[in-house]
Amino acid sequence: MPTTKKTNTEIISHAFEKLMCQIGHPVEFELPDYFIKSRPTPYTFIKRNIYLTKRIKKRLEDDGIFCSCTASPGSSGVCDRDCHCGMLLSSCSSGCKCGDSCLNKPFQHRPVKKMKLVKTEKCGSGIVADEDIKRGEFVIEYVGEVIDDKTCEERLWKMKHRGETNFYLCEINRDMVIDATYKGNKSRYINHSCCPNTEMQKWIIDGETRIGIFATRDIKKGEHLTYDYQFVQFGADQDCHCGAIGCRRKLGVKPSKPKISSDATLKFVACQIYQNGGLHTGSSRSAQNRVCSQCCIGKVIRLSRPPESFFGIIRRFDKYSRQHTIMFEDGTVDFLDMSKEIWEVATF
After folding, report:
1. Top-confidence residue, 115 or 274
2. Which runs of consecutive H residues, i.e. helices, occur in 29-163?
3. CB–CB of 238/164 below 8 Å?
4. What does 1-20 look like in DSSP terms, one character per residue?
5. DSSP label at 250?
6. Exposed, middle or buried by CB within 10 Å (0-12, 13-18, 19+), for 262?
């Protein structure tokens, strides 16, 4: 009777059993450093965000904020730092009368700063400036796949099970996240620093919330670009190797909150009395407070967004956009159209 030809599976199984007999007992071993050394995660280069979730439809009133700037003869640029749109972190609309002289263009029409990808000693890949960058200048947009919270959570768990420690996630709002893991641009390689030279800013571009990276100080050619990840811990602690003075040592440690002036602090403390009924408030629907919406700078307000409420201080009012700048208890700042909010003025 002819011998049956062994399959590849049987041959491999036999070889494995023979190897196990020779070893006798399992042994512990470590992979060599060159094998486990971190490599840049491959990705597809894109110029604009790709939406994998329901995109918020653009509203006509979100098409920029009316620009009051005017071009003067001989001027090379208008709509700079004194532009009302830019102050409110919004690009000028298509109706801006400054034309080609407008410096507050949407991100896709702004020149990206020259930069190059490099290897670092302790932080894997990184980005260095390939030209001098001035404070306040636009560096690059952070782009990727825009996903919802559910998809984000699913991806995080999959990455954790694969043992990945590099995350490229940036929150746009409560239910939208930019994930540059698989698709993005060079901004995904900008490393963390506890004392960074750039920062992320949320801008309204053509009615869409997008993330721009701006220089917080003058940056020299050849200097590493960094920003504060304000990392939300997911899994084991990650050591910080930024080397900055006052380094927090761990990426999971949140930075200290912005300092609030002493008078604002006292007002916020007094607001806590409200919880016990000791603070009087006025309704945003009253005629008195509709007038106050333009002249109550420095007033403490209580903003209601059921089931939560927040205390804040009105810092300024822009008559062109008719939006208020509000500083909240934790030091964060937001720009709100108070006619669309439920709020009360606190009086002492």
Report:
1. 115
2. 33-36, 84-87, 149-161
3. no
4. -PPPPPPHHHHHHHHHHHHH
5. B
6. exposed
